[in-house]
Amino acid sequence: MKQDSSVVLLGAAFVVALLCAQYVYALEGNTRRVSSVGPSSINFSGLDTNERFGKILSARPDFDVLRADSETRINASARQFPKTPLTTTGATEVNGTTISAEELEAARVAHQRRLARIRLQNAEHLIESIESNTDSLPAWLLKYARWHTNQFAALQESILANETNPRKVKYLMYHCSHDCGGLGDRLRGIVSVLYLAIATDRVFLIHTPQPPLRISFASAYLQWDPMMWGIYPRALNVRQQTTVNGAQTKLIQSHSDSSNSEQWLQLFKTNSGDPVLINMLASVPQSEPHVMIKTNLFLWSRVLPDPRFSAAFRRWRAPKVGAPLTIFEGQQLFTHAFRLLFKISHSLEISLKELETALELGNRFDNAFVAVHWRFGSARLGDYTRHGLTHASKYAVCAKRMMERIAKEQSIKTGACSVPVFLATDEEIARIAFLNELNASCQAQGGVKTVAVSPYAAVHVDRAQGSFRNYLHTIAEFALLMRAPCTVSSRSGFSEMAVLGSMDATTGSRCWARFDFCSEHEIDVSVHDPQKAQIFPPITGEL
Questions:
Q1: Which of 27, 53, 165, 489 lies most in the core, judged by the most C-beta atoms within 10 Å?
Q2: Cα gap 244→208, rounded to integer Å
Q3: Given phi > 0 = left and psi -120 to 50 = alpha, else beta, which region is 450?
Q4: Residue 157 CB: number of other CB atoms within 10 A?
């Protein structure tokens, strides 16, 4: 009997392993292939079924990136179970071996326990990050991150303890599958929903399947990936849709590790500056466990002063509650939120290194370069003209001022025109116009030495589809805008959020200016008196 039992268990384990290796689950039509080779092996179309999960698990020790990558693949099998409940009678035949529904359910539970152990390791890693706080984040946000991680760990412990009723968690999820805007729009919405989650004592999650955010960014201080919580949003099956004060609500379905189909209340509105979403969320009862929000609004500066959320923010010990925030304080809220949530993923780090190699800037790139973002507005990306050719001289003048600043600060004897420039733009004619203008201003020094442009085609996540590798390289350009000692921004969320995300977490200092608001005085203010700097200065002229 023992031998027969062992054979059955081995058979069940074999079935689960076979499912892990063969099933492909498309999360709203978009999953990915994970490989240690690099971003060239990442694909929208599906998962590479030939690699073994054990090899992936032992490949690298960094839980935040590797474990999320591994779970994307391991859960490909786990997500099959909710489709067909295994609690009914009947049997499954695989390669001539009959496995009962009960045996398959036992194998599924064992698989979920394995995932729970991996997730607990991730929680331990997050706690270590919170304790070290290398980003100088404020104590009240770390208090929320610690609570968030404790909720995450407790959920995994309830799975390991085989509790019949796993721990219930209240979530607020930023959700975006399409029509959400570009990266800047999405980051604005993500940060807004984070502060709304803190205001309502909910666990914050991010769901962006097109493309999956986990490809480019890893969790820094709290685990925001719903898959790591055992939640798998499926195609949005609308069960109910209503309009409340101009904003839409939907009830959507998702599935969880426990094979339960759950309903999520989704709130969404994208008109800039409209407080409807805040009003709606404030009216959602705490008994509603699952809430999604789709937005690209600047809401975070409105949330802390809102008296309806004052009690929650006082519990988190936020420093300024129930009072209007200054522009600078609002900017710092974004800086802190970005660093609380994100760090560069392994895949993006590879793309960033590929981009740096392609740009051929060498060692000079690490310490002395100016990054320029010219959002021209490419018809290829389905965009309209944003900042046309008439602005070429403004971009060049602003870049030259920053080059002179770096040359002076670092005592570069060969002069300002030898300081490398990285140009991120969506149009070739913008590159040519910028280079001509900058060369003209450097004519006395023999022209500008280096203007580097990415060889990879830019991708806008909403307006046009490109290869996933080019998407990663576009996000790598965003990372370079953040890393640059000095940055020239456009009136575009792509570079505006890059500047906000890379300001000094304590002082707000950052060498930057918008191309049309770029006097030497403005650059000095951004570095030495950032409380007076304006991330969104008045728009001048034709844009």
A1: 489
A2: 25
A3: beta
A4: 16
The arithmetic mean of pLDDT across residues 201-220, rounded, is 90
Q: Please state the rounded mean pLDDT for residues 393-398.
A: 96
Angstrom distance (rounded) from CA 333 to CA 299: 11
Q: Which two tokens stand for residue 69?
A: 């990558």
Residue predicted with more confidence, 104 or 152: 152
As a three-state string, the secondary structure of 239-291 is CEEEEECCEEEEEEEEEECCCCEEEEEEEECCCCCCCHHHHHHHHCCCCCCEE
Nearest CA to 108 out of 140, 89, 86, 127 is that of 86
The residue to which tokens 């063969």 are assigned: 22
- Cα–Cα distance measured from residue 414 to residue 176, given in angstroms and rounded to the nearest whole number: 48
Lowest mean pLDDT among 137-151, 186-200, 313-327, 365-379: 365-379
Model-level pTM?
Answer: 0.79
Q: How far apart (Å, rounded) are the C-alpha atoms in residues 233 and 260?
A: 12
481 contacts 490 by C-beta, under 8 angstroms: no
Query: Rg of the chain's alpha carbons, rounded to an integer?
Result: 25
Lowest mean pLDDT among 232-236, 252-256, 442-446, 520-524: 252-256
Distance CA 472, CA 155 (A): 32
Helix (H/G/I), strand (E/B), else coil: 318:
coil
d(CA 217, CA 395): 29
Q: Which has the higher per-residue pLDDT, 66 or 43? A: 66
Which residues, listed in sequence order, are joined to residue 97 by a DSSP beta bridge? 94
Provide the CB-side half-sphere exposure for 106 (13 A, CA). 13
Residue ranges of E strands in 154-246: 171-175, 203-207, 217-219, 231-233, 240-244
381: confidence class by pLDDT, cuts 50, 70, 90: confident
